[in-house]
Amino acid sequence: MINFQGVKGENVLKKEVDLITVSKKENWWTEAMKQGINWSSLWKKEDWWTVWLGFLLIIASIAGVVAVPVLPLRWGPGRQGAETIIGSIPAEILSGILVTGIINLALFSIGILFIKREELKKFIVAFPFVFMLAIVAELGGNYAPWRHYGFNSVIWALGIGLLVSNTIKTPGFMKGAVRTELYIKTGLVLLGASILFNRMLALGAMGLGVAWIVTPIVLISMYWFSQKVLKMHDSKGLAITIASATSVCGVSAAIAAGTAAKAKKEEISLAISITLIFTVVMMIGMPALVGALGIDPIVGGAWLGGTIDATGAVVAAGAMLGENALEVASVIKMVQNILIGLIAFGIAIFFSTVVEKKPASEVTIGPAEVWVRMPKFIIGFIAASILFSFILPQNAIDASLPSINGFREFLFTLAFISIGLESNFKEMAKMVKGGKPLTLYLVGQALNIILTFIAAYIFFSGRFFTLPF
Fold it and tell me: Quick check: helix, strand or coil at residue 231?
């Protein structure tokens, strides 16, 4: 998973330095298992706070404490009352936009207070500027003629962020509110409220055919290619890290796999940088390719969900193809995210027994690592789906969904402003050296794209399986 963080490899690794440090210990798996369940992670880890913040918004929406977020109106030729960009922000909604900003500021300040209290002041100072950029993105995304062709607020958000980052560079005072994963994962928890549980089960079952069949094939093939064809015998850790990032889910998979294989910090950074650059390209290019080739949007959504390397990028790309395609893409990527823990577990065993040739008696890797590595926002997504499918009365659902969906869409806009602000191509390119690592990624991604399209067509074209739409 992680999920697309949109940052340089070095910055990602700083967030995971505790994992890398532990991985350098000879018996790090043993020590990790001895620690047992770390209950403090429930209120100290960002991964869990995406669940709590998502449900805080859901509960507030159900209780009527928060309403639909107020954002700029649609505008453009033929839009009554909003022919111009000025008309899309009438004076009477300015206070509502301000309240929307305050709600988001207060919500995420709660999480940061527990996650890392010392960063709270920087977040409070920086968030108004990130919020204003998100409002500008909403203005661009609400221009009716362009929105019709897929240029929504998320695409504008990414473009605005990239423009800032790659021209004047992101100002230091804004970086405190650049929180890609916090925004995107909270939004994905909210997405669960809109996907009925029976539909999620149906999509998830078919998604297994895309995510759980293709992914291991690509992973194993890439590692074999790295050793037999590219002869990367001295870079086995780098090879498996690139293969995992490509086949599973970008940054998070690279960190999990690299840590399990005891790859060098520089190798994990390189794998992350390669993945991030191509993720941005694929996120914009693949939906356009789906449209140009006339591929069914549902098949296209499944294709995107299985190939684009990050959850956030999958959501943005899927949204360009429509609501159903967004559902399919999101569920497939979440199903694929579950593999992070399983694959890290398998890699640790493989490298201990085959690469390092340790006796079986010395390999003490516990299955609890599968739970440790699994992205926790998936639990929130499923819980929200169950809540809205089986527990809440219909009148409560009808009253709260507009607010929940409105916040979900705006959180995606905030996330992609953050992605753009942290994606400086010049700095990332410095880490991406040509040669074998880049060749491995390109060959592996090409295989991934081909096999995933075949699987997406088999499971989501409607010719072989009944779709839940």
Answer: coil
**In which element (H, E) is residue 234 found?**
none
Q: Decide if 188 contacts 381 (C-beta within 8 A).
A: yes
287 Cβ partners below 8 Å, 6+ apart? 150, 300, 304, 317, 318, 320, 321
Q: Is 466 a domain residue?
A: no
User: pTM here?
Assistant: 0.81
In a domain, 229, yes or no: yes
Residue 381 lies in a domain: yes
Dump pLDDT digits (tens) for 218-266. Answer: 999 999 999 999 999 888 999 999 999 999 887 778 888 888 888 888 8
Q: Looking at this protein, which amino acid is placed at residue 311?
A: T
User: How many CB atoms are located within 10 Å of the residue 435 CB?
Assistant: 9
Q: What is the CA radius of gyration of the chain?
A: 22
Number of domains within the chain: 1
Q: What angle, 0 to 180 degrees and rounded to 10, lies between the N-to-C axes of helices 311-319 and 297-307?
A: 160
Q: Is residue 4 part of a domain?
A: no
Running DSSP on this structure, what letter comes out for residue 289?
H
Q: Which domain covers residue 393, as residue numbers? A: 9-460
Gap between the Cα atoms of 58 and 134, Å rounded:
22
